[in-house]
Amino acid sequence: MPLLQSQSYVFDPRPHSPLLVSVKRYWVPGFESTDADAVTLILAHATSFHKEHWEPVLEDLYDRVATPSSPASKIRDAWAIDCPNHGESAILNEETLVDGYTPIFSWEEYARAIHLVLNGFGKGIDVDFRSRNLVGIGHSMGSTAIILTRTMYPYVSWSSAILVEPMFVHPDHFRGANKFLAQGAVKRRDVWSGREEAHQLFRERSFKSWDPRLIDLYVKYGLRDLPTLAHPDKTQGVTLNCTKVQEAATYGENHGRLKSQRFLPTFCKDVPTHVVFGAIADINPAENREFVKEVAGGGFLTTSFVENAGHLAVQHNPKGVAKDIGNILQRTPVVPSKL
């Protein structure tokens, strides 16, 4: 298996936005294609998770394509971006998030963070993404964020987009689903005696259906040592990077999702777009998937299904997600999006 390398960055977009952004670049030495048609992958995660949850997918993707004879081997690098109130970004923005980002945290803030990074509106990353062939890959909330970047100016010129389990729901069902998920976030446990206890409980209960690599990554990058601003009186143990309050605020969001849903047909006309569902219709039921395709107006170039996976396809079967992404990259020509 090719050895995946990474480098971490903190992007500071102030004064364009008060929220700092944690970003990580991934590459495999010897397979950093600089051909004119090589692609740069931009990865956006789902609610409750963080950018490192894409690492197993990238490992399995490079394992498939990082050979000289592979027609899909022209990947320059990959960049995963944290939502400003998730992962390491949540720690960077701990004090800023207290005012103005509850009880609702707009998914447009995630889109704005991606937009600012890719347009270079800030400091901390010395890369001209505007000269790259960008492939946007989003999971659930991350799909919405990728779409919403095209509602901001100057436009992000996506060469293509891959939406993994996009959460587009009929407007009549939005509020009920939001309330259920937000209440679950508020009620969840958020303090453990240490990473060892958390890992054991996640493995045996909460995340037992996950690929083991994802549990390891959640413990490593999704938890932080106490005390924190949310738990100033607790000095021992660990808690969530994305606090329960911020997680509930993110689940409670309606506007960004509806806006991206209405904008989806336009996005698909401008950007070659593929959709990937988990084969198991759990959180995202079959009728909702048909609604997603209906909303897109026939704009998806391909629709594929990841075996043995539901809405959390990235967590359930990263190898299957990597397989579908690899197939899409192999058969999709690199063309600039319409401005």
TrEMBL record:
Q: Domain (AB hydrolase-1): give its ranges.
A: 41-323
Entry annotated with the keyword Hydrolase: yes
Task: Name the keywords, alphabetized.
Answer: Hydrolase
Q: Name one GO molecular function term.
A: hydrolase activity
- Listed Gene3D superfamilies: alpha/beta hydrolase
Could you tell me the superkingdom of the organism this chain comes from?
Answer: Eukaryota
Q: Does the keyword Hydrolase apply?
A: yes
- Write down what this protein is called: Alpha/beta hydrolase fold-1
Record organism: Multifurca ochricompacta
